[in-house]
Amino acid sequence: MALALGREALGFVLTLLGAVVLVQSLLYFAPGDAIDTLPNAEELRPVLERQWRLGESLPIQIGSYLWDLAQGDLRTSLVYRPGMPVWEVIARPAWRSAQLLLAATLLATSVGVGLSFWTQGRRHLTRPAVWAVSIVPVFLLARLMIHLLNTTTWSMMQADLIARPAWFALPLEDHPLRWALAVSILAIGSGALSEIHSESEGLLRKIRASGYIEAARARGAPLWPSILRNLLPPLTVAIASRAAFFVGGLVILEKILLLNGIGAILWQAAVSRDYPLALGITLLTAAAVGLFRLGADALRLWWDPRRGATA
Asked: Could you tell me which CATH number the domain at 2-310 has?
């Protein structure tokens, strides 16, 4: 088990190093830089290129960034919050986004698992209905939901059926409905709910056909504790495999719904070519996804150490 966890931890570290090299290379070869976004770019370029280390070669940029990273320094924002350390820029937005991601993950898991207990082992119209709704991409589902809510509400307001709600019109007005809508869309869209539902159904099928469940049934013991104990570890791994998709959807949703989270800041950092900020956010999200998957694998190995021996 220790050896398997060691391999997983090594893979996590290598993934982070690969993320730094890949993103740094993409930023290096991308046309333009942060200086181009300034009104007096050509006058400031000689000074800012040295100050922001934009004129260095790619290997030196990667090496110097890794050296700073090893000391816990993510550098400072260039354009978005000039001179402010990246840690300070992203700390609070990252916490807000983490709450949104956690809520969406819990919602998708609870609904997907609940539906799987209802539909597993029989033909049911719920299964294709879940697939049809869940297959819609996050950005399209968000646009459709906003349009539907605004259009319906406006029609009711014009007919004097309701007064103007505090949240109208989305996403311009600051209201908890925007956050709830983001959680719901992230939990459902881009196949999230469908995949969790399908994975949970497959796991339930195997667990209910296993020998220990048959033995519990023969003894007249309750089956739910055994089913849930054996469902949790592999389901956690399946959810962890979707973590990167949740983060990708988060960037789009925070932009569409005007939520001030880490995804919206990443979007703005990319537009303004704020390389340290974009790289810091990318590294942070890659680390979060990697730690989530590492924790899921650790839970699976702790529950069934035989998997580590055959890994």
From this structure: 1.10.3720.10
